[in-house]
Specification:
The complex is a heterodimer. Chain A is of the alpha/beta class. Helix content of chain A is 49%, strand content 14%. Chain A has helices at residues 3-14, 30-42, 62-73, 78-89, 103-109, 111-121, 139-144, 160-169, 190-201, 217-224, 234-242, 248-266; strands at 18-24, 47-51, 97-101, 125-128, 149-150, 152-154, 174-177, 208-211, 229-232. Chain B is globular. The chains are: A alpha/beta, B alpha/beta.
Chain lengths: 269, 408
């Protein structure tokens, strides 16, 4: 069983909701990421999505775009991100790590080479925003052969038939994008999220996490009620951006404080 | 089988395939949030593309609003001076708004109208596609917002003001390199957010399927006219076609109706900038590698980590790190030859064409004209080259003056 599936089983047994957290590797500086990852786990994060920066992050709102720009400016690459996961695994062998990014850096590295190295360093899943199931090609096999989960997004505009296709290609969990648009966007309609999740829930037995537009403990708690977990991204990247130039420990502490707050909210459920 | 027989075996009209691929290129590499919008667009277009009434409306607009057919002009003096093949210009510069871009915006605006969407958005580099979009939006009473890199807003102030006069709102994009590719990212984000009431008018044959298909179809009027005009005037097909390639819409428009004519050679001219060997250029087909950007697989300019790199060209309309996927496919098939022309060569052709023929071409088109100047002397006097004169040069006067050190 993959580390991701294991984590969902454990959480289920404890009656806890999954808190999935997203930061961009190398943002705002290469030294900040590793201590922040450990701090996030300490503060109650269950799964880490590590953003791989890309020059053209088409699905991101302004906050995460800036995170990508800061990370690229500090020289972050996909290979460097894989190396960082190896570092993280030296002291943490239980928290699942998913790489989230765009297709081109993975294409450039080569699907097989990527999958081999990902397995070697202890990456558990890949979420490639611009690689729908129809365009996966050889990557699907390369990941599956190594039990690396392939995470897909579902959107409010995803029709049931398509949701079935996505679910049949996915493993680990499914990520429901709670609103039309980009990361970090406006207001979230909890009733609309519920209607969609009810629909998708009939199509798949995979755990379902909800992200996009979750800004605080209150929204996170309201949404988590409906799903297996929530994904928090923009609010963390925003905090990283506010601490540019500060020592890594201070950045990690600021991000950890946000996560602790959300964790407390989730644990009331 | 010989090379030539292999080329003849390709049924060019069968591509893209049903999933939007040209061989390994094209496709639909987008976030799940955009799949629905693309499915919807594909359905609308496949219902309308063979609809007689829709075609008649498109043709009517091209005739009476754009001013088509555009002339096929025999550049006799230029041909004589170069001392080789006879050069003909396909005069897309004489279209309403001054470039080929309007052929496509007329077509997409008709699609928008059929969908009942009240708002259109576009990306623009030099501003030509933005102006062409703002123009059709004004005519149809649609709300229009145009994304333009902040750097381009500064460089192309005249077109920015033109769009504003036409009632469009120009939104400067400050992310990334602040140029065309970033404007396209931002337009995609807007579309994902506002898909219910918004139609995204892409300006070139790039982007996710079905855009490369529908933009090609709308621009193919250029080649259909040129083919008929050439046959009528000279009784034969041309020997060579030359067109500039940024995203590649004017080139595909000219080339596509000739692809099955094996005797017609084709040259796509990329922006060589300071020279391909310097790395400062915008010529992915000459010095790039297949990758994924803006929803399709195509040749790209990128670094060893797969990050898209900044491009350079004197011509803002060619300053793009990717290229339409059909061009990537035609390159690999060997059907079209892609060649670079650098900034200095293009500027020289701009001046030559202006002085010798009394036609001031856009700097984009000047790249094609510069290659024709090289090609013509290698051919016989009874041979024919058609150059796509894709736009007029008025918009570039300040750029040229600045290079000359003149304040206008």
């Amino acid at each position: 069983m993959s580390r991701i599936s294991q984590q969902f089983e454990t959480l289920k047994a404890k009656g806890r909701k999954a808190l999935v957290v997203y930061i961009v590797n190398g943002d705002p500086s290469p030294a900040a990421t590793l201590p922040t990852m450990h701090k996030m786990v300490e503060a109650g994060a269950d799964i880490i999505e590590l953003g791989v920066p890309f020059s053209d992050p088409m699905a991101e709102g302004p906050v995460i775009q800036k995170g990508h720009e800061r990370a690229l400016a500090s020289g972050t690459s996909l290979r460097g991100t894989l190396d960082l996961v190896a570092e993280f695994r030296k002291t943490n062998n239980t928290t699942p790590v998913i790489l989230m990014g765009y297709a081109n850096p993975v294409v450039r590295m080569g699907y097989q080479q990527f999958a081999e190295r990902a397995l070697e360093v202890g990456v558990d899943g890949l979420l490639t925003v611009d690689l729908p199931p129809e365009e996966l090609g050889d990557l699907k096999t390369q990941l599956a052969e190594r039990d690396i989960d392939n995470i897909f997004l579902l959107a409010p505009t995803t029709a049931p038939e398509r949701a079935r296709l996505l679910a049949s290609n996915a493993s680990g969990f499914l990520y429901y994008v709670s609103l039309k648009g980009v990361t970090g966007a406006g207001h979230l309609d909890v009733d609309a999220v519920k209607a969609k999740l009810d629909q998708f829930g009939e199509l798949t037995s995979l755990p379902m996490c909800v992200g996009f537009g979750i800004k605080d403990a209150e929204t996170a708690t309201n949404v988590a009620r409906l799903a297996d977990g929530v994904v928090i991204g923009s609010v963390l990247v925003d905090a990283m951006g506010k601490h540019v130039g500060q020592p890594p420990e201070q950045i990690a502490a600021a991000v950890g404080a946000i996560i602790s707050d959300i964790r407390r909210g989730l644990d009331t459920l | 089988m010989s090379d030539k027989e292999q080329k003849a075996a390709v049924d060019y009209s069968a591509f893209p395939d049903a999933t939007g691929h040209f061989g390994q290129f094209g496709g639909r590499f987008v976030s799940e949030t955009l799949i629905y919008a693309l499915d919807e667009l594909q359905e609308i277009y496949s219902n309308l593309k063979d609809d007689a009434e829709f075609q008649a409306e498109f043709d009517r607009d091209l005739a009476h609003y754009v001013g088509r057919p555009s002339p096929l002009y025999h550049a006799e003096r230029m041909s004589r001076e170069l001392g080789g093949a006879q050069i003909y210009y396909k005069r897309e510069d004489l279209n309403h708004t001054g470039a080929h871009k309007v052929n496509n915006t007329i077509g997409q605006a008709l699609l928008a109208k059929k969908t009942g969407k009240s708002r259109v958005i576009a990306e623009t580099g030099a501003g030509q596609h933005g102006v062409a979009t703002a123009t059709v939006a004004a005519r149809l009473g649609l709300k229009c917002q145009v994304y333009m890199g902040a750097e381009d807003v500064r460089r192309q102030a005249l077109n920015v003001y033109r769009m504003k006069l036409l009632g469009a709102e120009v939104i400067p994009v400050t992310s990334g390199s602040k140029t065309l590719k970033d404007a396209m990212n931002e337009a995609m984000r807007d579309w994902a957010t506002n898909v219910d009431d918004t139609f995204y008018i892409i300006g070139t044959v790039a982007g996710p399927h079905p855009y490369p298909l529908l933009v090609r179809d709308f621009q193919s009027i250029i080649g259909r006219e040129a083919r008929a005009q050439c046959l009528e005037r000279t009784g034969r097909l041309p020997d060579a076609l030359v067109a500039c390639v940024g995203g590649g819409s004017n080139a595909i428009g000219l080339f596509h109706p000739f692809l099955s004519d094996d005797s017609v050679a084709m040259y796509g001219v990329e922006a060589g900038g300071d020279g391909v060997e310097t790395g400062r250029h915008a010529a992915p087909l000459n010095d790039g590698i297949p990758g994924i950007l803006h929803g399709n697989r195509t040749y790209l300019m990128e670094d060893e980590n797969g990050q898209i790199i900044e491009t350079h060209s004197v011509s803002a309309g060619l300053d793009y790190p990717g290229v339409g996927p059909e061009h990537s496919w035609l390159k690999d098939l060997g059907r079209v030859k892609y060649v670079p022309i650098n900034d200095q060569e293009a500027l020289s052709a701009f001046r030559n064409t202006t002085k010798v023929e009394g036609i001031m071409p856009a700097l984009e088109s000047s790249h094609a004209l510069a290659y024709a100047e090289k090609l013509a002397p290698t051919m016989d006097k009874d041979q024919i080259i058609i150059v796509n004169l894709s736009g007029r040069g008025d918009k570039d006067i300040l750029t040229v003056a600045e290079i000359d050190g003149i304040t206008v």
